Amino acid sequence: MTRRCSGDQDSVVPLLGSRTLVRELAHTMGLHVTVPYSNWFRKGQVGGWVTEYGNFLTFATVRGASHMVPFAQPDRALGLFRSIVSGQRLPNTTNPPID
């Protein structure tokens, strides 16, 4: 699986350009959207947004991150990295505790 990520506040490589590039790449490769643009969560908060194309290509953003994602949002970057290394999807639900 190939993954690409971007900070949603990146002024060096703007999010819209990255998202468009990945979408066009998926189209060229004949991949279809399997998970539409939706949010992913980290510790009960929106960590960013993600789109998956088949089981091959994923594009994820990290909320509140600039060009250097691990520096700007280290915890969210770690969650994204763990997901990539373990080969799992980014969490797309929260499980808030019921008091």
From TrEMBL:
Signal peptide: none annotated. Keywords: Glycoprotein. The keyword Transferase does not apply. InterPro entries: AB_hydrolase_fold (IPR029058), Peptidase_S10 (IPR001563), Ser_caboxypep_his_AS (IPR033124). The keyword 4Fe-4S does not apply. One of its GO terms (molecular function) is serine-type carboxypeptidase activity. One of its GO terms (biological process) is proteolysis. Belongs to the peptidase S10 family. This is Uncharacterized protein. The gene is ga24481.
